[in-house]
């Protein structure tokens, strides 16, 4: 089973994503901020990280930088969610190591399509 860490500070959006992805058979672990996400990443293995750009504690960019600096995590796929959808924001996210960028708001079905593409 594919394990996903979802780091999103908006509880309602987190619940929507969890419900959508669990219905598709994914195992989801939730983190409400960047610090909690890092804590999970240091203790458990995940196939994919879905991370929000703007979160308390550590931003999504900071989380990605920590993931990419950890040799045991470099193969994990990363999808960045953000309401910041300007081209320069997307380029910044991809430059630090995210595999894909998804602008908010988004369709849950589109999220599933992106995950299938990312995970093969």
TrEMBL record:
Residues 3-119 form the Response regulatory domain. The modification 4-aspartylphosphate is found at residue 52. Signal peptide: none annotated. Keywords: Phosphoprotein. One of its GO terms (biological process) is phosphorelay signal transduction system. InterPro entries: Bact_response_regulator, CheY-like_superfamily, Sig_transdc_resp-reg_receiver. It comes from the Bacteria. Transmembrane segments: none annotated. This is Response regulator. The lineage of its organism: Bacteria, Bacillati, Bacillota, Bacilli, Bacillales.
